[in-house]
Specification:
The complex is a heterodimer of chains A (294) and B (326). Chain A is an alpha/beta fold. Chain A is built from 15 helices and eight strands. Chain A has helices spanning 8-12, 16-29, 46-50, 52-68, 78-90, 94-104, 120-136, 152-155, 158-161, 171-178, 202-218, 229-237, 239-246, 257-265, 282-286, and strands spanning 2-6, 32-35, 73-75, 117-119, 145-148, 182-184, 223-226, 254-256. In chain A, helix 4 (52-68) packs across helix 5 (78-90) and helix 4 (52-68) packs across helix 6. The longest helix of chain A has 17 residues, at 52-68. Chain A starts with a strand and ends in an 8-residue tail after the last helix. Chain B folds into three domains: 6-109, Beta-grasp domain (Ubiquitin-like (UB roll), Roll), CATH 3.10.20.30; 112-241, Orthogonal Bundle (Fumarate Reductase Iron-sulfur Protein, Chain B, domain 2), CATH 1.10.1060; 246-317, no CATH class. In chain B, 41% of the residues lie in helices and 11% in strands. A five-stranded mixed beta sheet of chain B has the order 2-1-5-3-4. Chain B starts with 5 loop residues before the first strand and ends in a 10-residue tail after the last helix. The chains are: A alpha/beta (294), B alpha+beta (326).
């Protein structure tokens, strides 16, 4: 399998551990990631707020880069996934397409709408398949209870993104089970992490993040795992503030999606960049039971 | 069991806040066909099993918006939700009152907070007294003008979106999806003369608290797509006032940060949003994060092809006036 790798900004900057873990897992599964240094930011939902057509055009340029190379795109961020997918969809509107094409044409860029955008979670569960994943597991995550946290833009608007049920998704939980972990089901798993308003009104954003972490804990989670580095910023990098907002300590480690996969495949914590988290993952890793010897 | 029916288990939230007893879930089991609406099931429970069950409904046809409630944790109209798929997915039907509003009794909530927020946006046409409505004829509108209303006239004010909204849950300042979708409807109405004023007044501690999580759009029984109308409002608000709020400063700052390098410059964005003095408030957390993630301070190199990005901006973007940091 060969895919155009779209890491997004955060995984190339403060969330570099996500990029490390993705590359490790892709290598372990024989997925060839093709880098394109000329990919731009997806706009992260903020550019869309400021100028919708500009946001579609930026992503049409990204899509055109992959199209020219004859590759589909792999994303590792719920927001990048949402923005690139929605650009594909919005280009179906003739008026939007005409404006975007008019902006791209003088730059020698053309996009014909052939590129599929797939998040790593989807590639792992659908294209690689859970049986292959199971066969690759070297250190099953037995004993570890993990609350998946999807991130809004991987699920909604569901009629546009056309993938999992927005209320009862199960891809992430199926993957966690395949890795030997016990998935934890809780209301917060499909809720918002608060990140989009972190810069608008931090106390409100932190209250929202704190609620979801609290909810995962109340349902018995030893850790959370997220396919979105922006959720990771809210849930991990700002967890101390989220704890202050809900009025009690939280202390719940939060993994990036490929980190849990890598752990089960036998990668070391250093290879997955686990030392870069603000909330230590040591306690969660210590809970993994070695499989019983038959 | 009668042919074609299934045994439907309802777990219904029961609470009378005027009494000391805590809330509880009461189980009722009925034989119903799979296509029976949840509302019909509840009315049968009330008629045949328990006359004390309190709920609100009227038209039974998804027109009046009275029977919005939580069915298996999703805010929706009970009359528009069939029991078959719910039983197939969850094995039972858990019925609860809407969230984010106080319970009056059982499935009935006090919608005052919802309506107060609706009042806040002045949900009526504001006309210029110097430009009276033409006498003797209606206001003709072009098809393009009608298109701008998008899906908003379909709203039946059922409050399902308000119940589903995490920003409402966390912060009473947020007006909620329905009020903002309605506000959008008046802002784009060619007869209304207060659009500019509406866009200015909704911004402080209001519009920009939307999380764009799209939970309202999932909950809406009429496909009004409130989250998308709120997005439209944000772009209109920036157009009307420039970047003056933290929310608009962040959106515009983000947009500009990409124009210059193609990738997000995390530190530059913090400065554009908060201003240099406002950054001081972020210093403590910034240091905590920097210790683990030193790339935070690294300025990204411009991507190869950044001139293409600049070309796209030149064709499609206009620079906004920036307001001072608050």
């Amino acid at each position: 399998m060969k895919l155009a790798y779209y890491p997004g900004c955060v995984a190339q900057e403060s969330g570099r551990e996500l990029d490390m873990a993705t590359r490790w897992v892709a290598k372990a599964l024989g997925i060839e990631l093709v880098d394109f240094a000329n990919f731009s930011c997806c706009g992260s939902g903020f550019v869309d707020e400021a100028n919708e057509v500009l946001n579609v055009a930026l992503n049409a340029r990204n899509l055109a880069i992959a199209e020219k190379a004859g590759l589909d795109i792999l994303t590792i961020c719920s927001t990048c996934q949402g923005m690139l997918s929605l650009a594909n969809l919005r280009l179906g509107d003739a008026k939007v397409k005409a404006r975007v094409d008019a902006a791209l044409k003088p730059l020698g860029i053309q996009y014909h709408g052939t590129v599929k955008v797939k998040h790593l979670l989807r590639v792992l569960t659908e294209d690689v398949g859970l049986e292959t994943i199971k066969a690759r597991v070297r250190r099953p995550l037995g004993g570890l209870k993990v609350g998946a946290f999807y991130g809004c833009h991987l699920l909604r608007p569901a009629d546009e993104l056309q993938w999992e049920s927005p209320e009862e998704p199960h891809a992430f939980e199926d993957l966690l089970s395949a890795l030997g972990a016990t998935p934890v089901y809780y209301r917060g798993r499909v809720m918002c992490c608060g990140f989009p308003i972190q810069f608008v009104k931090e106390p409100t954003a932190m209250k929202i993040a704190g609620r979801q972490i609290d909810d995962a804990k109340a349902h018995g989670a030893d850790a959370m795992a997220t396919p979105c580095p922006l959720c990771h910023i809210s849930l991990d990098s700002y967890q101390n503030k989220a704890a202050r907002a809900v009025g009690h300590p939280l202390d719940l480690p939060v993994f990036h999606l490929p980190q849990v996969v890598g752990l089960a495949f036998g990668a070391s914590p250093e290879e997955l960049g686990l030392d870069r988290h603000l909330v230590s993952t040591d306690g969660a890793i210590a809970k993994i039971r070695p499989p019983a010897v038959a | 069991m009668t042919e074609g029916t299934i045994s439907a288990t309802f777990d219904v939230y029961r609470h009378d806040p005027s009494r000391a007893e805590p809330a509880r879930y009461q189980r009722y089991t009925l034989e119903l066909t799979p296509h029976t609406p949840v509302l019909t099931g509840l009315l049968r429970i009330r008629a045949e099993l328990d006359p004390t069950l309190t709920l609100k409904y009227s038209c039974r046809s998804a027109i009046c918006g009275s029977c919005a409630m939580q069915v298996n944790s999703k805010s929706r109209l009970a009359c528009q939700t069939q029991i078959g798929p719910e039983i197939a997915r969850h094995g039972r039907i858990v019925v609860e009152p809407m969230r984010n509003m106080p319970v009056v009794r059982d499935l009935v909530v006090d919608q005052k907070p919802f309506w107060r927020n609706y009042d806040r946006i002045q949900p009526h046409l504001i006309l210029d007294p110097r430009r009276p409505m033409p006498k003797g004829r209606e206001n003709p509108m072009s098809p393009e003008q009608v298109d701008r209303f998008k899906e908003t006239p379909r709203c039946i004010a059922c409050a399902a979106c308000y119940s589903a909204c995490p920003a409402v849950e966390a912060d009473p300042a947020f007006p909620g999806p329905m009020a903002l979708a309605k506000l959008y409807r008046f802002v784009v109405d060619p007869r209304d003369t207060a659009a500019q004023d509406r866009l200015v007044r909704i911004q402080p501690d209001g519009l920009w608290l939307c999380l764009r999580c799209h939970l309202c759009t999932e909950a809406c029984p009429k496909d009004v797509r409130p989250s998308e109308r709120i997005r439209d409002l944000k772009e209109l608000a920036i157009g009307a006032q420039g970047a003056t709020e933290f929310g608009s400063r962040h959106a515009v700052g983000f947009k500009e940060s990409i124009r210059d390098r193609g990738l997000l410059d995390e530190m530059l964005l913090v400065r554009k949003t908060y201003g240099v003095s406002g950054m001081m408030g972020q210093l403590g957390q910034g240091i905590k994060i920097y210790r683990k993630k030193p790339e935070l301070l690294k300025k990204p190199h411009p991507i190869p092809g950044v001139e293409e990005v600049e070309g796209i901006y030149a064709a499609l973007d206009r620079p906004e006036a920036e307001g001072g940091a608050k």
